[in-house]
Amino acid sequence: MVYTTEERIAHVYRRLGMGAYPDLVATTSSVEDAITRALDLDQPSPALLEMDVPLDRKAATDIAMLAAPVQSWITSMVESPRLIEERLVWFWHDHFSTAIQKVRIPYLLWRQHLTLREHATGSFRELLNAIATDPAMLLYLDGARNNTEQTNENFAREVMELHTMGPGNYSQTAPRMCTRSEVRRGLHCLQQRVSHRSACHFEMR
To answer: Do 163 and 86 fall into the same domain?
Structure first.
């Protein structure tokens, strides 16, 4: 099957961006031009929602507060000229997935989104380190429940099995060792990452 230049350009934008918008395809002269535009990170970053830290439990767990962050993200996906960045933000959201049903705090999910966005096109090592101390992820995978009396290996196992090495590529002692190391910094990181007696603090009390 022979594809037209327009079809090939559209394919590039579907794979490296969030869709082959007609106006974008129409103003692109070649496949090479499409690749260059899709990978261009010199374009200005999209304006993102600035979300206030909730100051009490009721405000922190108000699910209606999730609407504005979701709309901000959708707007960025549609309007941002940094196509590959939007694609990777979406990709990393799927890879390091969390859910409002368990985290329950929209503010923390939005902070996680901003963390993923900050590291989306950079070093995976730095992204993984940031996610390992992300309050939403720690709540979602029970990492915040670690303490010296009773450790919880769920976070460590998910990081190794789903986020990095894959099943069968680590020893069964590795999650236990990782979990013990996380005990020391888990709640401390929660307090450091979210300021002003935040929603995460209320959730953990």
So the answer is: yes
Could you write out the DSSP letters of every residue in the chain? Answer: -PPPHHHHHHHHHHHHSS---HHHHHT--SHHHHHHHHT---SPPPP---PPPP-SHHHHT-GGGGHHHHHHHHHHHHH-S-HHHHHHHHHHHHHT---HHHH--HHHHHHHHHHHHHHTTS-HHHHHHHHHT-HHHHHHTTGGG--SSS---HHHHHIIIIIIS-TTSS-THHHHHHHHHHHHHHHHHHHHHS-SS-HHHHHH-
- Give the pLDDT means over successive 10-residue stretches in the chain (205 positions): 95 97 96 98 95 94 96 96 98 95 96 98 94 90 68 72 75 62 48 42 42
Residues 6+ apart with CB under 8 A from 121: 41, 84, 85, 88
Say if CB 65 and CB 107 are below 8 A apart: yes
CA distance 188 to 90: 29
- pTM above threshold 0.70: yes
Tell which residue, 126, 136, 186, 111, has the closest CA to residue 156: 186
The answer to whether the beta carbons of residues 14 and 73 sit under 8 Å apart is no
Q: Are residues 61 and 149 in the same domain?
A: yes
- Do 24 and 67 lie in a common domain? no
Domain around 14: 1-39
The answer on 177 and 79 residing in a single domain is yes
